[in-house]
Amino acid sequence: MTDQEQSNLAPRVAEMVERFDKIGELNMRDLPVYNENLKVEAIGFHSYGDNYLGVLITPWFMNVILLPQDKATMDYTLVASPTDETLPAGTWQFMFGGDDVMGLYKSLSLHSPMFAFNTQELARVEAKRRLNSLLTPPAAVTEDVTQQQAPANGSRRAFLRGQVNG
After folding, report:
1. 80 belongs to a structural domain
2. What is the pLDDT of residues 90-109, one digit of tens each?
3. Does residue 80 come out as left (phi exceeding 0), alpha (psi in the -120 to 50 range) or beta?
4. 59 and 88 in contact (C-beta within 8 Å)?
5. Residue 126 belongs to domain with CATH number
6. 73 within a domain of the structure (yes/no)
C-alpha cells in the first residue's frame, strides 16, 4: 500500500493495517503459512453502520472485517466466538477477534493460507470480488447467475468456494 493510499484510510482502518503489519513482522513471517509475495492491505473499507466494513489482505489470510468506528473494549472471552451478521447478500457467521491495541472486531474468513495468490494484484481482485458479492442484494443478481449459484443466504461453504453472487 502506498503512503497516499494509507493516508486515505480512516484512522481506525490505518491503525488496523499498521497492527497487522507488525503482527506479520514479529509473529508470522517465519511460519509456513506466510506468503512472501503479499503484504497487508485494506480493500474497500467504508462506513457500515457503526463499523468500517472491508477486506483485509495479509500474507497469511484474507478476511472480511467489521471494525468498530470507535475502538471496542477488548474482551478476550469473546475471541473466536461466532456471531451472525446481516449484510445485503444474506446473514453470515463472523468470528470475534482483536487485541489490546485494536480492540474487538469481527471477521469472516475468505482465504487461509494465501498461497493461491502469486501477486498482490490477484489478491486485490479476489478481495474486491468477494466484498462486492457480500454487498449485492440477491434481487440485484441476474437470473442467469442465480441459476448457476447457491442463493445468497445459502451455506457458508458455498460462499467460501465463491459460489454466491459472484
Report:
1. yes
2. 999 999 999 999 999 999 99
3. left
4. no
5. 3.30.1460.40
6. yes
